[in-house]
User: Fold this.
Amino acid sequence: MYGRDYFDWPRAVDNEPSLTGSNQGAYYRYEMERYLKSTAFIDCDAESVRQKAQALTEGLDTPREKAVALFYFVRDGIKHNPYTPCQQPEDYGATATLRRGSGNCEQKSVVLVALCRSAGIPARLGFVDIRDHLLSEKFRQMIGGDNLLIQHGYVESYIDGKWVHASPGYDLETCRKAGFVPVDFDGINDAKDGAYNQEGKPHIEHIKDHGHYEDFPWDEIVSYRKEWVTRIGREWKEFTDNVKSMEVD
Assistant:
């Protein structure tokens, strides 16, 4: 139906220049400001986000400690729901998902970025196409019959001088029920979805990383979905109607 090199999605620019001296300091400040600002999606200045970030990080001293606490709240406190409404821009705002208490990987990632930024930790979004070898038949049929999941969301937080990957999608309860290996985060090492489940069977396979973004790229997300739907031989309206019929808020 389609291969691993099926088509390209516009990437974020991730080649950062090599700078020294005062130029390096200015570039660093500019970069960090980009990943601390509030946006329509990553609304880290919203009262509910600020209050939650403050409550979760109270008494913690270092950015690493704060990032870890925020990760585990999003992983387990925002329940994994692959059938959450996801076809309108308003479905992806951090405050909306925080209020709903559940979301898919992209929506949960937006919440984690917003909480990190509210706590003063530079953070950005990333997207990767994956193969989920343990995907349920119901979800397979919703997305076209295969186990390819496009635009799987993750987060990169800037901690102790480096960007650290964190995937908050699957909560602990979901992992226990499905036999997945939970993603654990220490703020030092990359925390990616497990390649195998608890029985050693293949689980998540990374196919194509699209780079990082300072905001949720709604237009690119939709454009890529439409191209993918065309590639798998389905009509856009039929596809979106099918997804909508399975949505559970």
